[in-house]
Each structure stands twice: as structure tokens, then as C-alpha cells.
Amino acid sequence: MSKEIKIVIAEDNSVLNLLLKLSLKKEGYTLFFATDGKEAKTLIEKHDPNVILTDIMMDYFSGLEIISYVRNELKRNTPILVFSSSGQEETILKAFSLGANDFMSKPLIPNELVFRVKKMLL
Hints:
The protein is an alpha/beta fold.
């Protein structure tokens, strides 16, 4: 059996979380869900995930703050995919400048997300 792949998903939309769960579970990934930035930080520290998926707009800490936390405080190179419904160029560029590896606009296309996660794990 191959190594367990752990993914922390920081998203406050329960419908989207269900969609992500269905799409990623069938790939065999172990998923940890956070509904706000504070919970996301805790899960990232506790589980040291292989990939982090985070929304930009969340309570307590934004997705941008999560990227900064992982890169600057934890000093981890964990691949991070950010998603947002805003799609504002400034926000996307800020995410990349902080160390995000990829970006997707909402609404997410599940098969595309799975493809991008697999690509980040290579």
C-alpha cells in the first residue's frame, strides 16, 4: 500500500466541502476539514498535510494569512492551492507572492481540482 496522502481543506461552505469530500475521497486521500482559519492552522500543525486547499475569505484568518503562516512561521513547502469566488487579480497575485502554488476560481470543477492536486503531489 502506498503512503497516506493527507489534505487539509479550509472552506466554510458546507456544500462545497461535501463536493470536495466526494471528489477527493474516491482518490484515496485522507481529508481534514476546517471551516475557518483558526481551525485550519490547528489541523495543519497537527497533521502536517501533503497538500493544503484553502479559500481566501474565511473567519479568523484568511487564506492569505494561512499561506503566510505555513511559509513563514512553520517554514513548510507544503503545496497550497487557493480558491476564491472574488477572482480579483490583486488577490490572486498576493496569494502567489506569499507562496501559493496554484489558484482556482469558484465555482470549482471537481475533476479539475483532483487533477491539480495530483499534479502538486508529483
